[in-house]
């Protein structure tokens, strides 16, 4: 009788092993060999999904793209205290405030570096990354101005709101950058404060009054 | 008779070779061996300054720190058209709008990565990088509000202005990040437009009216 492999379950097992390694040992510690050891699966089973460090990064990139939307959905479902607070919480899912989010950022940056040095190979990931961030910041703008939130505002909002979404996008990327550019200089609290200050500025430009 | 070596001249020759390589071939192309070939100097002369790829990056980092202030001084000396335009030009010296500035950014990011993975070795560069950006954005704020510009405002400005400097700092880093995170998505014109929009926002918060 042929053995039946639950590919989805196996994929999840491998994904968990990859995350544990990335969070514990960083990019340098996440080799194909380490994933084999960490997951307890056979080398052959692992190599079905990736065989090089670059492929491993791409696999990790796909996990991000699959899991982050669920987290955001969770935040959107929370009966948040006020619009500005909810918008901040959405954006905070994307900035490096804990190990998980720091790892997500490092994987995204590593994939951007792959695409920069070998154009074309990771084009889809990069384009989806930029588009995904913009969808998220559109959601944050809709939350800020108290509009009904559709889950995937993939089309640009009307001009004033789209401009606000672009500003929040630049803000979130700036906060990520300051963590990357100045290791050890800024605490998660510093990053969170910058994000909240920026959201307040964008909200004020949209005529949203902060709740005290 | 002993040979007299003009160390400063040699250092400049090597620096030029390193820059040519970095601009032409990127970080991966800038090996110690490539610098020997590019500079026409002996291997021994090169190895007086650096012997590994990491040391080469540190040498390139020192060149940035030596040369960027001169460029900024040049911008400050220009009789700029209006304060907002001059502030934008200052910040534009730091964002990846051409090969030289893209290379500077890559070197800074590579040194940050070295410090992140081996804490303590490049601490001084990272701290100077954060402090240097803040001095620059303080200059931009002083220019924006029409104040006399001292060349090294190393101490925080008064609260409202220091907050504006922090916002411009985050803005400049965000623009750099969007170039790094989304290779091929944003043009130099996009980056410049984001920077100018952000400067206008900060200026407006300071009560500076844009000149039409």
TrEMBL record, chains A, B:
GO molecular function: DNA-binding transcription factor activity; transcription cis-regulatory region binding
One Pfam family of this chain: TetR_N
Aminoacyl-tRNA synthetase found in the keyword field: no
Domain of life of the organism encoding this protein: Bacteria
Family matches, as InterPro entries: BetI_C, DNA-bd_HTH_TetR-type_CS, Homeodomain-like_sf, HTH-type_TetR-like_transc_reg, HTH_TetR, Tet_transcr_reg_TetR-rel_C_sf
Record keywords: DNA-binding, Repressor, Transcription, Transcription regulation
Positions of the DNA-binding region: 31-50
Residues covered by the HTH tetR-type domain: 8-68
Protein name, per record: Regulatory protein, tetR family
SUPFAM superfamilies assigned to the protein according to its UniProt record, in alphabetical order: Homeodomain-like (SSF46689), Tetracyclin repressor-like, C-terminal domain (SSF48498)
């Amino acid at each position: 009788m042929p053995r039946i492999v639950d590919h989805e379950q196996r994929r999840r097992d491998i994904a968990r092993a990859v995350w544990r390694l990335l969070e514990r040992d960083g990019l340098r510690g996440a080799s194909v060999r380490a994933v084999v050891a960490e997951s307890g699966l056979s080398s052959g089973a692992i190599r079905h999904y990736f065989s090089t460090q670059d492929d491993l990064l791409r696999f990790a990139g796909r996990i991000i793209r699959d899991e982050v939307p669920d987290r955001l959905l969770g935040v959107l479902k929370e009966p948040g205290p006020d619009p500005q607070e909810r918008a901040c919480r959405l954006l905070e899912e994307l900035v490096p405030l804990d190990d998980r989010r720091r790892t997500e950022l490092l994987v995204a940056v590593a994939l951007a570096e792959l695409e920069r040095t070998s154009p074309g190979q990771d084009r889809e990931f990069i384009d989806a990354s930029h588009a995904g961030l913009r969808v998220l910041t559109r959601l944050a703008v809709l939350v800020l101005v108290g509009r009904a939130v559709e889950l995937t505002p993939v089309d640009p909002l009307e001009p004033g709101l789209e401009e606000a979404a672009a500003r929040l996008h630049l803000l979130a990327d700036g906060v990520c950058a300051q963590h990357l550019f100045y290791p050890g200089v800024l605490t998660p609290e510093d990053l969170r404060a910058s994000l909240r200050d920026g959201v307040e500025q964008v909200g004020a430009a949209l005529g949203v009054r902060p709740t005290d």
